[in-house]
What we know:
homodimer; about 230 residues; mainly alpha; 9 helices; about 5% strand; DNA-binding
Amino acid sequence: MNAPVTITQTRADEAFDCLQTAIVKGELAPGEKIGELDLCERFNLTRGPVREALGRLESRGLLVRRPHAGVRVVSVSAAELLELYRIREVMEGLAARQAAERMTDQEIADLQATLDSHETMIEEARGQAYYQAEGDYDFHHRIATGSRNTKLAQMLLGDLYYMVRMYRYRLSTSSGRPHRALGEHRRIVEAIAQRDGELAEFLMKRHINAARQNIERKIEQGEISF
Amino acid sequence: MNAPVTITQTRADEAFDCLQTAIVKGELAPGEKIGELDLCERFNLTRGPVREALGRLESRGLLVRRPHAGVRVVSVSAAELLELYRIREVMEGLAARQAAERMTDQEIADLQATLDSHETMIEEARGQAYYQAEGDYDFHHRIATGSRNTKLAQMLLGDLYYMVRMYRYRLSTSSGRPHRALGEHRRIVEAIAQRDGELAEFLMKRHINAARQNIERKIEQGEISF
DNA sequence: ATTTCTTGGATTGTTGACAATATGAAAGGA
DNA sequence: TCCTTTCATATTGTCAACAATCCAAGAAAT
């Protein structure tokens, strides 16, 4: 008799999720001061769970808190965003290498199928930057998981990606980029399928480096406001 | 009139520090179940702040929590500890590279002075593994900070180092290693002083890789119990 | 007019009581 | 004897009131 899986999401977890998505989606703008009572009213919760969630978010670096003075959504400067990509470069490079060594054949097949669906997505939803970004996120998510490196996946999925996603909503990918990015994804998966960890690492690093340079260009051209 | 610097460490911060050091020092063994009330009594605090601290520690991966079933100190397996070093390798490699580009001359001079004091420490305190380990920690700490990469330093200092230190107390460094490690530190600093980021990255990666292999050897020889 | 000091208000930090849930022991049946 | 089920207890999750602290508006003085 299977007990009903007890998905006992505690209220604090609920608050945590709500807040995290609110921050990522930009409903709470960076730098904005947010009061605890506002949040309680907004999510129909009491202060206890909300406070616990705030503590967790703070220690993950999404919020900054000053005693008795409230919490603010962290505001990442342009320079810091670029630094984030430098970190991604080395960490995801490692993830790709380990994924090449450890992913199952089934996982690799699924990953290739995912890329196919991304391709149709790009063609159909021309200009729908949001879904393209989600596809990109999906790709990187699978490789992080495929590395079988618990802590690495935790740091990528639990920390870095959320900070990057905060800015996805402002950084519409430039017109030519999605196609190129998909091609890069394909080559990375090829390397993984051939179990060539070294190559997978190299290609992933180059892929993220290209994304970083793309952002850098936009910042120089003043297409982004911080 | 300077107001007395208001070091208003909130109770939750206090609880956080107490718990973190207790975990790192091994006073709370990995896998051990810890009750909230025990902690309150132990640190003379009430459950509110303690709970908040537990939440933060959990999201940093030092604790694992199951709803209504209490929290346990995370127990890292041998394999996971080695994976941790793989992450350190790439992240600290990046830190060394950026440190070579960005540390001030003064910081580099201080770092060299630190190594001198480590040298006397190793000679005098022969076998005092603890202080040698602290010296090693100091070295890596300075480079992480010197990278001027806020998030990178945060991840290294706030996450990885605490997990590694948890096991420093069990992994007494093998007899020959401290001297060799000091030599490696010296060469890394040399590269930084010459502003050769590429070389600094390479040497740091090799340094951490050597430390990992050292641990791997000990595990094979059954000198470590997990 | 500008600066400093004071004070009221609002917000955060903390506390102890209350409700919900998992763990483990005891009882019953196979 | 072993397994399943039930129930009591202890522990965790949640709540609402209380205390401590910061912030901003306004008054006083230079």
